[in-house]
Design brief:
By secondary structure, the protein is of the alpha/beta class. 33% of the residues lie in helices and 24% in strands. It contains nine helices and 13 strands. Helix 1 packs parallel to helix 2 (65-74). 45% of the residues are buried. K(+) binds at residues 237, 239, 273, 276, 278, 282. Substrate binds at residues 10-12, 38-42, 136, 243. ATP binds at residues 179, 211-216, 242-243.
Length: 295
């Protein structure tokens, strides 16, 4: 069984500000930091740090050395990462004094996937292999269709949610990992139980993990709901919190742990990540997570 994450790779430009800027305002930033990031890369690094042998597929630009270095340092296999001689994906991130953030995303090379490249990547994967996807690359509909034909287990983090997802056959998804906002965007409901019930009705063959911010997370398979509270820490930067949770949850499931154990490990890993600055640099290794949990 192999694990493929086909997703975005971004250079993150993180500006420390007093408060999130509003329309017409000019504000000095107290600090600028440059990190590797992108939901795809963050989740691959979380998987790798959680002990999973993961392949990452995607495209970087001429500024992609920092991204390839981050993969190699974390142990992510870069066999399926291509480089184009153009500007790659990047973000401009504001982080305020309360550790809240807002993000402007430029797709760059992340939006340059082709059918030929998708076919080339998926040729090496088949039945029972895991495929992790987010919504920061193009060709998602084609990737889902081709992976489903190969009987891969498709895990979807539908973030950021937009109309592009309406072109995808989400009935082919094995596991959804989403937050309250994405849950409301898909179902029209704000209440967590209504979101999960509506998701289960809409996608009866799938399983769901709904993250609830400071209210924890809940798993639902259409029958049983399993809840996990947060581990309270002083937040410094929440940028990679959800991606860390996603990577660790999937890793624990692949390892054969129970849903409750998987949620607990993911929650602990996420709590460690938010206590540190940056996206990929904030993601903890499995040894640290186990030590914090007394395992």
């Amino acid at each position: 069984m192999k694990v493929l994450n086909y997703g975005s790779l971004n250079v993150d430009y993180v500006y420390s500000v007093d408060h999130i800027i509003v329309g017409g305002e000019t504000q000095h930033s107290s600090k600028l930091e440059v990190f590797s990031g992108g939901k795809g890369l963050n989740q691959s690094i979380a998987l790798a740090k959680a002990g999973v042998s993961v392949y990452h597929a995607g495209i970087v630009g001429s500024d992609g050395d920092i991204l390839l270095d981050a993969c190699k340092e974390a142990g992510v296999n870069t066999k399926y990462i291509r480089r184009l001689p153009v500007k790659g994906g990047h973000t401009m991130i504001q982080v305020d004094k309360n550790a809240q953030n807002c993000i402007i995303l430029y797709g760059g090379t992340n939006q340059m996937q082709t059918r030929e490249f998708v076919d080339e990547v998926l040729a090496d994967f088949g039945e029972g292999d895991y495929l992790l996807l987010q919504n920061e690359i193009n060709m998602l509909d084609y990737i889902i269709d081709q992976a489903y034909e190969k009987k891969m287990k498709i895990v979807m983090n539908p973030s950021p949610f937009d109309d592009k997802l309406n072109t995808c056959d989400l009935g082919k998804i094995y596991l959804f990992l989403l937050n309250e906002i994405e849950g409301e965007q898909i179902t029209g409901y704000k209440d967590k139980d209504q979101i999960l019930d509506a998701m289960a009705e809409k996608f009866p063959n799938a399983r769901f993990v709904l993250t609830l911010g400071s209210d924890g997370a809940v798993y639902y398979d259409g029958k049983e709901k399993v809840f996990q509270d947060i581990f309270k820490v002083k937040a410094v930067d929440t940028t990679a919190a959800g991606d860390t949770f996603t990577g660790y949850f999937i890793a624990a499931v692949i390892e054969g742990r129970s849903v409750q154990e998987a949620l607990r490990m993911a929650a602990k890993a996420s709590s460690i990540a938010v206590s540190r600055p940056g996206a990929t640099p904030s993601i903890p290794a499995m040894d640290e997570v186990k030590r914090e949990l007394g395992m």
